[in-house]
Specification:
Layout: E1 13-17, E2 30-31, E3 44-49, E4 52-58, H1 73-83, E5 87-96, E6 106-107, E7 111-114, H2 141-154, E8 163-166, H3 175-183, E9 188-190, H4 196-202, E10 206-216, H5 227-251
Parallel strand pairs: 1-4, 1-5, 5-10, 7-8, 8-9
Antiparallel strand pairs: 2-3, 3-4, 5-9, 6-10
The protein binds hypoxanthine.
Length: 269
């Protein structure tokens, strides 16, 4: 792996998600980053939340033109590290496999099943240095705790634990695939959490996910799936989602006290 020059900004929190999360339509200051892995999806926009600065990256590009299987996950995560970010929040649209988790729900997943393994560029370490990060708990416990506490304080309904199964896409699933995924214990399905989450761990970044349910997955409800349904459900939850994130940023401890910051300590030979 190429050495990273870090700390190019004072901003310690990163946010990566769809274009819908950006504040307003005004053109923002955006920082371009070149990485050894190619171009990130877009420039890193400086957003201000209650006078706290956050770097925001549009995962699918400025015009939403990069499909999930073509996102340059390595460049995106490397860019955050290069700029000095320590904690990254990933925001996702997902389908629900669980009839108890309805469209519009905000979910804080605690586990991942990765069905993109071997298909996407998924590691910064491709030899000669060999690294095996521990991924038993794939999300930062401190960030998850802050999200759950904030939701409680603000009376925002959330689902505090769920297993996210990540597929390659871009097509949606068959009904039989979803039946199979339900048997694995998965609750929600999406196309972009992996390898984003494990790449963050490889760079000792803290990472947590916030998923918004856009639809019931294939065959869970009898209606055929439409992208419009997903967007409408996302729109309904947008204000709660923004409030949840803004307040969570505020209550995060300044110094990190979690496993993620030392993830490489016992990860190589
Ligand atoms: N499947 C996969 N990805 C998704 C879905 C889905 O049903 N909804 C939103 N993203």
């Amino acid at each position: 792996m190429t050495e990273i020059k870090i700390g190019l900004t004072e901003i310690k929190i990163g946010l990566i998600g769809g274009s819908g999360l950006s504040e307003g339509k005004v053109k923002k200051e955006a920082i371009s980053v070149e990485t050894p892995y190619g171009q990130p999806s877009a420039g890193y926009e400086v957003e201000e939340y209650n006078s706290l600065k956050v770097l925001f990256l549009k995962r699918h590009g400025p015009e939403h033109s990069i499909p999930p299987h073509k996102v340059n996950y390595r460049a995106n995560i490397y860019g955050f590290k290069h700029l000095g970010v320590e904690r990254v929040f990933g925001v996702f649209a997902v389908g629900s496999l669980n009839t108890k988790i309805s469209p519009g729900s905000i979910v804080i997943p605690d586990q991942i099943i990765d069905f993109t393994q071997g298909v996407r560029e998924s590691s910064f370490y491709e030899g000669p240095k060999v690294v095996h990060i521990d991924f038993t708990e794939p999300f930062c416990s401190e960030m998850r705790r802050a999200l759950i506490k904030t939701a409680k304080n603000l009376n925002i309904a959330i689902v505090p634990t769920a297993t996210y199964i990540c597929v390659n896409g871009p097509r949606l699933e068959t009904a039989a695939e979803i039946r199979f995924f339900r048997k694995t214990g998965a609750d929600i399905v999406g196309m972009t959490l992996m390898p984003e989450a494990s790449l963050a761990r490889e760079l000792e970044l803290c990472y947590a996910a916030v998923a918004v349910v856009g639809n019931y997955a294939a065959g869970v409800s009898k209606k055929p799936l439409t992208v419009r349904e997903v967007i409408e459900s996302m729109n309904k939850s947008r204000e709660s989602l923004k409030k949840l994130l803004k307040e969570t940023f505020k209550i995060l401890p300044k110094e990190r006290n979690c496993y993620c910051k030392d993830a490489l300590k016992n990860a190589s030979f």
